[in-house]
């Protein structure tokens, strides 16, 4: 039927049949290498994304697009290799196609037992483009902070980053430098503190690297700061500022607020917490360098709005800056394999996941029933000292009724990830009742056969009422 929002739904009745035999049992397909979630590559190098599987009979490997349709071979652009790898050969810039080189794929493996799909694989090809970086000189009042910019063209800024600044005498300034004089902002700009006439004698140039092609470039020229003498008092005026910075948890972050004034202004940073303003806790993880607030490794609690106040004897100025700490979607760091056991055995399944915030781990049987509702099972979950979430599903004495496909799912606000493998217990085959299922028309749909017992030879599906 069709709803008022023009979304179609369908409901089907599905019948399942299991066949048991004494000959060597079939095994469902499993990934021996599941492709990664992201592949970024240059058009000059191309990319090969592996996908391999095991099972009995040997699984057939195919690649599908985000809509579930097969990804056919396209000569010179895309093909599936004999070992199941998805290959993108090097290609000229004019052959770039967004539907091929900037889209989502999945690897599917199947045999007579069933079909298993990989995680989504986000593919992004980067077309090499020529560019150059030209620097400009900057003026600064003596004693104030100066800023030299390294203007990377916007069409390559997603991949090209500043790796260092070089002073004309060979002195190298890197992002990790701890110096009372120099530092590098989040965007690669160089700041210089407590400027004097001596600083005008130095010139600087920036070094960059393309994270995809690994190409290194140096700016085409040197730039310098021109230090001028103040001739009268000036209230501070903020000339350069950071309005918003977004960084993943655990990474370095900088907030900047650079002013000009005479006498030389002083800087104070506050964090807004509701109606209250508190000074950030400065220490080994956070430090202030004049108008720059440096976070060595951001944590979730660092996120929020900060106020930079600049003042001298003749005036003041202030701005706000927002620090966004990006959540990390869960990742599985340890999972359990498929198991074949006899009744009465002790069985323990484990999943270890990381993420920010720390993910919650849930367990399901056959992708439908929460394991927490099953008698004879115990779920034990705790947080390790390094922030990993470790969850055990324990069976003190398994029974054939415990057979099935067990799934752990780790989820937080940033996303979720699942892992599922069968627990096969020797005994009579059976099928758990399967409720009616509802699906969106024209969308991908899958359902697992909720059976137990072992060994088994094949699974048959039949549509319609018996």
From TrEMBL:
Residues 28-128, 236-324, 330-424 form the Ig-like domain. GO terms for cellular component: membrane. Keywords: Cell adhesion, Disulfide bond, Immunoglobulin domain, Membrane, Repeat, Signal, Transmembrane, Transmembrane helix. Coiled coil: none annotated. GO terms for biological process: cell-cell adhesion. InterPro entries: Ig-like_dom (IPR007110), Ig-like_dom_sf (IPR036179), Ig-like_fold (IPR013783), Ig_I-set (IPR013098), Ig_sub (IPR003599), Ig_sub2 (IPR003598). This is Down syndrome cell adhesion molecule-like.
């Amino acid at each position: 039927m069709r709803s008022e929002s023009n979304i179609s739904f369908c409901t089907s009745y599905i019948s399942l049949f299991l066949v048991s035999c004494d000959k060597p049992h079939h095994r469902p397909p499993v990934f021996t290498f599941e492709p990664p979630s992201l592949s970024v590559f240059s058009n000059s190098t191309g990319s090969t994304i592996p996908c391999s599987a095991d099972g009995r009979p040997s699984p057939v490997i195919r690649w599908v697009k985000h809509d579930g349709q097969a990804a056919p071979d396209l000569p010179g652009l895309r093909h599936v290799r004999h070992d199941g790898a998805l290959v993108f050969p090097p290609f000229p810039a004019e052959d770039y196609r967004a539907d091929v080189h900037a889209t989502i794929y999945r690897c599917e493996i199947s045999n007579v037992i069933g079909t298993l799909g990989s995680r989504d694989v986000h593919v992004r090809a980067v077309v090499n483009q020529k560019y150059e970086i030209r620097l400009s000189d900057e003026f600064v009042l003596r004693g104030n902070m100066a800023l030299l910019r390294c203007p990377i063209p916007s069409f390559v800024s997603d991949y090209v980053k500043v790796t260092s600044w070089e002073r004309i005498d060979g002195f190298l300034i890197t992002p990790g430098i701890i110096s009372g004089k120099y530092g590098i902002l989040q965007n690669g700009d160089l700041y210089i503190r407590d400027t004097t006439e001596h600083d005008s004698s130095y010139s600087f140039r920036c070094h960059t690297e393309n994270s995809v092609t690994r190409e290194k470039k140096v700016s085409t020229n040197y730039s310098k700061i021109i230090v001028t003498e103040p001739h009268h008092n000036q209230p501070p005026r903020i000339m350069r500022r950071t309005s918003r910075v977004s960084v993943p948890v655990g990474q370095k972050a900088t907030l900047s607020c650079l002013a000009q004034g005479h006498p030389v202004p002083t800087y104070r940073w506050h964090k807004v917490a509701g109606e209250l303003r508190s000074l950030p806790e400065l220490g080994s993880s956070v430090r202030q360098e004049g108008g720059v607030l440096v976070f060595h490794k951001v944590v979730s609690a660092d996120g929020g709005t900060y106020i930079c106040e600049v003042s001298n004897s003749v005036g003041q100025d202030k701005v706000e800056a927002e620090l966004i700490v990006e959540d990390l979607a869960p990742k599985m760091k340890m999972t359990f394999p498929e198991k074949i056991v006899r009744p009465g055995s002790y069985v323990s399944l484990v999943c270890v996941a990381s993420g920010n915030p720390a993910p919650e781990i849930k367990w399901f049987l056959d992708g439908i029933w929460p394991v927490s509702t099953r008698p004879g099972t115990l779920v034990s979950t705790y947080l390790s000292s390094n922030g990993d979430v470790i969850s055990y599903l324990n069976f003190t004495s398994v029974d054939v009724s415990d057979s099935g496909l067990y799934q752990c799912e780790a989820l937080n606000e940033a996303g979720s990830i699942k892992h599922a493998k069968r627990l096969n217990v020797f005994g009579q085959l059976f099928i758990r009742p399967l409720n009616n299922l509802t699906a969106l028309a024209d969308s991908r749909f899958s359902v697992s056969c909720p059976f137990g017992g072992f060994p088994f030879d094949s699974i048959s599906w039949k549509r319609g009422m018996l």
